[in-house]
Amino acid sequence: MDGGAMLAAAVLCWSCGVVGALHRTDLFPFGPLSGDLILPEGDDETSRALTLPKPFYFYDSPFSKLYVATNGIISAQDLPMEKQYVDDGLPTDFPVVAPFLADIDTSGGRGQIYYRVTETPSVLNRVAQEVHRGFPDAKFTPTHAMVATWENVAAYEDQSQKTGLSNKVNTFQAVIGYDENDSYVLFLYPEGGLNFFGTRHKESYNVKIELPARVGFSRGEVTFLLFSRTDGPFYSVTTDENSVKSLYQVGNTGIPGVWLFHTGSNYFFHNIVPASIGGLLDTFSPDTTTPEYEYLDNIFAGETKVDTYTVTEESDHQVLYNRDVPEPRYSSEPAERQYVSPKSSEGRAEQLQEQQPQLEVVDVHPPERTEPPLSPGGHVVSVDEDVDLNTGVFQYTTENKETCAKFQHQCSQNAFCSDYATGFCCHCRPGFYGNGRQCLPDGAPQRVSGKVSGTVAVGLTPVKLNNIDLHAYIVVGDGRAYTAISEVPEPVGWALMPVSQIGELFGWLFALELPNSQAGFKVTGAEFTRHADVLFYPGNQRLSIVQTGRGLDEHNHLTVDTVINGNVPLLPPGAEVTMEPFKELYQYYPSVITSTSVREYTVVSAERGSESHSFYLKQNITFRHCHHDNLASVPETLLITMERVFVMFVKEERTLRYAITNKISPDGADSSEDELTNPCYSGNHDCDTTAQCIPQEGLTFRCQCATGYRGDGQNCYDIDECAEGVSSCGENSQCSNLPGSHRCQCQRGFEFGYDRRTCVDIDECSSSPCHINARCVNELGSFQCLCQPGFLGDGFYCSEQTGRPKSQCEQHRDSLQSGGPDGRPSVGAYIPQCDSDGLYRPQQCHSSTGHCWCVDSRGQERPGTRTSPGAPRADCSRTDEPERPKTRCEHHRDSVQTTSPDGLPLLGAYVPQCDEHGQYQSQQCHGSTGYCWCVDSRGQERPGTRTSPGAPRADCSRTAEPERQKTQCEHHRDSVQTTSPDGLPLVGAYVPQCDGEGQYTPLQCHGSTGYCWCVDSRGQEKPGTRTPSRTPPVDCDKPDRPKTQCEHHRDSVQITGTDGLSLLGAYVPQCDEHGQYQPQQCHRATGYCWCVDSRGQEIPGTRTPPGSASKDCSTEDEPERPKTQCEHHRDSVQTTSPDGLPLVGAYVPQCDEHGQYQSQQCHGSTGYCWCVDSRGQERPGTRTSPGSASKDCSTEDEPERPKTQCEHHRDSVQTTSPDGLPLVGAYVPQCDEHGQYQSQQCHSSTGHCWCVDSRGQERPGTRTSPGAPRADCSRTDQPERPKTSCERHKERAEATISGGYPIAGAYVPQCDADGHYIPLQCYDSTGHCWCVDRNGQERSGTRTPPGTPPKDCDKSDRPKTQCEHHRDSVQTTSPDGQPLVGAYIPQCDEHGHYQSQQCHGSTGHCWCVDSIGQERAGTRTPPGGLRVDCNNPDSGASSSRPESVCERWRASLVEHYGGKPDPQQYLPQCEPDGEFSPVQCYGETTYCWCVDQDGREVPGTRSHDVVKPACLPTVTPPTARPLPRPDVTPLTNTGVTLLYAQGQKIGALPLNGTRLDASRSKTLLTLHGSIVVGIAHDCKENQVYWTDLSARTINRASMVSGAEPEIVINSNLVSPEGLAVDVKRRLMFWVDSSPDVIESANLDGSERRVLFNTDLVNPRAIIVVSSTGTLYWTDWNREAPKIESSSVDGQNRRVVVSDGIGLPNALTYDFSSGQICWADAGTKRLECVSPNGSGRKVIHPSLNYPFSMVYYRNHFYYTDWRRDGVIAVSKDSSKFTDEYLPEQRSHLYGITIATTYCLPGSH
Asked: Which stretches of 852-940 are assigned E, i.e. beta strand?
């Protein structure tokens, strides 16, 4: 039988079988979601080279690159033009793998071609299974695979032909799998995938010749005899169109459409070997190009068997998987190698009997498909079925399905729960990220804490790690992860430096995400286990690392425990470890992630020099995966890039540190393109560490504060959700603020309910906490233990009662005697009196009020026996009549429970009233509420007879009439809740009184408080009619009159709380019927009484205690003399709060009997005393502190000088009326100690302030309203402007009555300094506030009543500053609301910054502070002493020692910042002795780090949290530690280098072209104790020059190895900054910003001269153009900044630029254009201009904070204070092109360029 007949028979026989065709869904995963690259559209396209991780063998030759072409081929060499091969058959001139070689065209969107190189385990698994099926004896475990897919591609068609394009398209796939020895290729042709089988020849000259596609392999040309070439071996699968058509119908693997070939080996390999399963393709002749098909009968007979997989869980939650895991629709064949489609499989799966080779990684869950998922048994699972996975662990049914309703508490409080067909999943809410079970706020930095334990052998010495601390801090916004392990024993500390994998976990969890990727925390959440095995070379030491995520703690910090066991190579002490950046591929599966890699590192030590080492890392991370969400997709592979790896062991601290910068991206993606596209993907942005960088179009981006923070994105502040009332905490819970979030905690006695959100009461009684002889009573949030009858104790311990039990009276008495919070009796409480037998005494008296009454045996008051204090008491000794048998009424009455179980009376219970015969009285009344009603003979209430207290009672002798409909009053009355849920009456509720017709009675009274008032017909109170208890009520029929002062006073007293219940203890004035104060006033709660005058003022000496005889207030007092100034002063002090309670801490003047100031005054609260003059003014120098001897104030003052105009004016003001009353509102001028008018005057009554001239005349436009910032009266007058609408309004409102005093109660608008209405207006008299528009019109909905916070009229989102947070956090009141005397409260200016001078309001001490509120040493002054000038930076500095480096640096920066640094700007924090504080922070932010004694940052300590890093002073190295010599360490083999100044060092950063070569950067010179600012380079002698702000010197050093610095100038320098070197003239120039001079000298320091010392304010940068002999410098005078120039000899000085600039910090010269260029820290612009002022242009509009700049080859390089790095800007594109951030972050100052030759124009 020939080949064609054999193929036909095979096809016919196949059609009779049960084999299922290959479907498209059965292809290997492809497309962008699988990490594929896409070949560009076209007719003849070739991919860029795919560099293979390891070479693969094709035939017998290794190849390291692959190319994919449009025309259906893969090549190991770059392809020629298609016309050289597309129309030819095999062999080809170049290596080819051809699944379908034809003229294919994807132009116009006709198909896509995908390709990738992958290590994905699911792909490798499947390749391995197919190879072992086709080649059972092969020992093949693939390590890599290349997948190429042609999807819906079309054949090339001539566009010139009139016929339309064909719609026939093909889909096919080729997969190359290989290991280090062999390669295999799979061709896959899905059913319906081939619709055209050949293409036409492009050069057929209108002859329609169609060439069938070529399928096969060709080695390409090979060399022989040295110079000759010939065709290599090849192999063809098809020969004609029919064989092409059969590709998807048959195959050589037992699966139609799947073809497998052995294609190469490193051992002898002659030609391609096809697979042959079941004899489908028996043999192929290596020497022929056409395969011969042979087909065996019954190849599909037999029983179906399908593989299964199992998942088991061991201890520690490590998930293990078996190795024989099938791909969907594929099965590992049993011994018979039989195949059936999964669709025909009906039975349960059986385990694979044939043991397959073990693979390293497996795919547990197959990739998701659009069709229903397959169960392990091979059939679709319905949610209604019972499916036994036969694991012995889990059975799934709809009955035990987990749903959100049951398990939502497993989700984070920042997540929502979603139900799916098989269960539920948690998903983080917008603004948060994680796996749903744990969610963190987007963009916020993250902290990690945990313990490290285990045993590590260093060499032969095992060292045990006993739970030492691990802390990590991750800046999520740019992927920086810092890890520190403390208390590490020294040998292990050095040896573990290369094991950066400990910290890499945190970098992966929170890596910077590039597009189409996600950091690890989004997959694993906070609960996971990571196993890592490290094998070191060349010593073969092994180390095991197990890290377990334990979840998030109460601060939302991740908790991870680490266990390390094994051996590590010994590293010598003091060694340095360098690890280059590297990339690692992570493989993702449901529930497990794996990776392997080889790392190299270098160890440099003094003993061994430089050594190279490596290790092999294999790791897997297991976690809890929610498989119910079928739509959730995780990429199969992601690439983690670790760009910077910094490791060190600090011996002095015994701390091991790792610092790593991490990014994560899809496998195969070119992250460099994204990084060049937008700064968010490279971390090259200035967003705050608590902000997200959101990429925008092009290079633009937006900074958005992280969830839980607010600000502008560059400065973000934590939102206190608890304080702002936006927390999610519910009832009975307590809110605790966290950085970026908050935490809800249940209050004591409560716990979280099932949903983990609601706080429910804890039933403490369920745990039997009480004594065995006590009973437990559960209460809301608490419980009580009560001893059983016959036992005494507190309930937790009860002892048997020995004497008689306490009587009801004794229990009643004892309970009230210990009723106060401190166990003492409450003041004013009534305490029963008991006799010796414990019975109530017949007569009871209230010790506070003096009232007495008689009681019965139950302690109930006998009606009609109460007498007032001083009145004759009732005779309580009369005996009661003998009792007769009880009637029903009496039984009812006596059955009422009037005492609690513990013997205390129950107030408010209704007790029936019986007549003398024991029958129900026809009218019954409730003793507590005052309600009365009629009853029948059975005691049942007669409807419609109930009356309220005080109202006329119903006539109970009349028969009941039919009821009418209820009126409004009756509805109101009956709706009042008068009983509690347990049926007891509610005392204190007001119940309206209705008349017989159901209308409101004109006079209403409150039954509990006794207050009465008049109402209208609708029951609304008529103002001014309310009277207190025991005073005659108002005649409600009389017309209203205005309220008197007494009535206003009385009605303003708050007598009820917010809950409507009365407030006990408040004093309420008593007014007579005319509204005047009654002569005698009494406090109802305390019983005190006193006499008052007509104004209600107490008459001294008339107050009497309760029970004593009252004064006779009717006697006429002697006429009072007018009050003196002292008495007015004393009486004007507010000593009580609005609710009548005393105000503690107010100073009250002491007057003598004549009303004059006592010569010595003392503060009653603080104890300070001082002497005063006759006007009460303190005499300087007389104040003494509490406990110290007081001054003798009797000594006479020196004779007074004559009064000045101001004093005459002041003393002439009439402050009292003719009748001696004070005149409120009179303005009294204020004079200084010399008697002159104080420049600022204030009206003590209205609160308005204004400026005056020397004659006391008001300066127009300076008046400010109360509470508004006052005008600066020290400034000269400005020309008067016309009055504004607000000012005219205010003038009208301030119109006065006769006598010159303002109208009381008038509303006066408040205007700002410019005369405009301030947005918030307040009515001083009523306390109401509201917002207004620019015209002063009230904005609706903004009015707030007194006592409530006013609206924010500016709607300003400015977050609180550190000062405001500090100020508002000070506790000024005690828990009971009383003020706390003595607390220091910071003073903040209008911008929220600390005022430079702070004073303690109680003690009077004052001191100066810096921008973060820290006291400046030596500035504190006692009360009354001369205060320090805090605006002078040197004020208060100790003269006993010179300024330290820290203090000099600080003073320099304060000056540079203009005296007031911004909140985010850095100032060194110094200790009182001048040394650096161990913790340093950026301004008012929480961005902090640790430093050593020299102020150098300790790597890995950066933090951005409210909790500052733990930087202990003991951590810093000892001061006796010898410092290294400041030798020069130059770079080698570098042509152009940037030199930059960074505090105490000069760094060198080479340029590679114009790119910053960060990999070769190093420290050129270390200068301990210096502050290097200006820097310049002499290209002729290769020397570097610099200014030292600390030492106040100018220095230089040769840039050769070992050179030491040399001081050039060391005298008469104060703040040397900018520096320039004139190479041509051998001169140097510098600016000194303190004396404001520009000087020059020779390069050796000789011939020094001052060029300019006038018209300079803050000179900063200076440059010299040697070629023209011109100097240029900047002066950032904040009032008038400018850039000037002159000749080098100081001639021809002129201004170059003076407009449109702010803080011109940086200056450079563009030699190519001859322009001056500057970078402005004020305008944020980089600009250039010609020396003559023309041609000005903006190079870049939005810099960060530039300091210094240099120009080189069309690029500007500047140091940036916000990024703390070097930034590159292209002059041509005006874009940022590069960035360099040193490992140790601090401000960079000057920058210059150093070359081995002098650049053109520089000499």
From this structure: 852-854, 923-925, 932-934
CA 1574/CA 1593 separation, integer angstroms: 11
Q: What is the pTM of this model?
A: 0.37
Residue 1482: both structure tokens together:
């950026």
What is the amino acid identity at position 1366? H
Of 695-699, 1054-1058, 1784-1788, the least confident:
1054-1058
Distance CA 650, CA 658 (A): 11
Q: What is the pLDDT of residue 1507?
A: 54
Instruction: Give strand ranges (E) for 913-1020.
Output: 923-925, 932-934, 1003-1005, 1012-1014
Predicted pLDDT of residue 485: 93
Return the top range by mean pLDDT from 61-65, 366-370, 848-852, 1073-1077.
61-65
Q: Long-range contacts made by residues 583-586, C-beta under 8 angstroms, separation at least 24?
A: 583/639, 583/640, 583/641, 583/642, 584/639, 584/640, 584/642, 585/119, 585/637, 585/638, 585/639, 585/640, 585/667, 586/508, 586/637, 586/638, 586/639, 586/640
Q: Does residue 83 or residue 444 have the better pLDDT?
A: 444
Rounded distance, CA 769 to CA 1308, Å?
Answer: 65
765: tokens are 């009684």
Coil, helix or strand at residue 971:
helix
The answer to whether residues 922 and 933 touch, using CB atoms and an 8 Å cutoff, is no
Tokens found for residue 388:
């036994």
| Strand 1726-1729 to 1737-1740 pairing | antiparallel
Identify the residue whose tokens are 């949030």.
781
Nearest to 485 by CA among 474, 501, 473, 472: 472
Are the C-beta atoms of residues 453 and 546 closer than 8 Å to each other?
no
| 1156 within 8 A of 1126, measured Cβ to Cβ | yes
| Sign of the alpha-carbon dihedral angle for 662, 667, 669, 670 | positive
Structural tokens at position 1601: 């190895």
Give the Cα separation of 1088 and 835 in Å (integer): 29
Cβ neighbours for 654, distance < 8 A, ≥ 6 positions apart: 486, 487, 488, 489, 490, 493
Q: Which residue has the tokens 């600009």?
A: 1727
76 token code pair? 């190991």
Question: What per-residue confidence (pLDDT) applies to 1235?
Answer: 85
> What whole-number distance in Å separates Cα of residue 1261 and Cα of residue 1251?
9
Local confidence band at 354 (pLDDT 50, 70, 90 cut-offs): very low
Q: Which residues of 983-995 are buried (b: 16+ CB within 10 A; e: fewer)?
A: eebeebbbbbbbe
**pLDDT tens track for 807-860:** 888 888 877 765 555 555 556 778 889 988 888 999 999 887 888 989 988 888
The whole-angstrom separation of Cα 184 and Cα 264 is 7
Tokens of 321: 């998987």
Q: Dump the DSSP string for 1437-1501.
A: --SSSPPPHHHHHHHHHHHHTTTS--TTS----B-TTSPBPSEEESTTSSEEEEB-TTS-B-TT-
839, 857 contact by CB (below 8 A): yes
What is the rounded CA–CA span in Å between residue 1762 and residue 1746?
8
Contact criterion met (CB below 8 Å) for 1206 and 1231: yes
Give the residue among 375, 383, 423 at the shortest CA–CA distance from 401.
Answer: 423
CA distances (Å), origin 455, targets 316, 536, 543, 563, 566: 19, 17, 10, 8, 7
- Give 1140's pLDDT tier (boundaries 50, 70, 90): low
Residues 6+ apart with CB under 8 A from 912: 889, 892, 893, 896, 920, 924, 939
Instruction: State whether residue 1025 is helix, strand or coil.
Output: coil
Q: Round to whole Å and give the CA distance between 505 and 511.
A: 10
> Tens digits of per-residue pLDDT, 1527-1578?
666 666 668 999 999 988 899 999 998 999 988 888 888 887 788 999 999 9
* DSSP letter assigned to residue 1289: H
